[in-house]
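Appendix B. One record, verbatim.
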Amino acid sequence: MAAPTVWCEPRTVLPRPTQRLPKEPKTADELVTMILDDLQKFEGCPRKGVRITVYGGRDWNAMLMFGAEAGPVPNVSILRSLFQTITERLQNRYDLVE
C-alpha cells in the first residue's frame, strides 16, 4: 500500500525575532507629545504639571516628573508603570533624531 500524499499550503515567511524592522526617526518633542498623549488617556493622569523629558541618542530613554501644578497624584505608581510601558513600546518603533 502506498503512503498517502500530503498537500501543504504555501507557507508565509515571517521575520525572525532577531530580524528588526527599521525604526522611524522622531524628534524628542514628537516623542514627548506621543508619550503624554497616551498617558493622558488614562483616568487620574493630571492635565497640568506633567513633565516628560526624552534624552539620549539611538538608545533613547524618557523621564516622567510631576510638578506642583499636578497636585496630589494618588495613583502615581500606576501612572509610572503605564509610562514605562508606553516608553518601551515607542523605543521599539522609533529612533531619536535631532
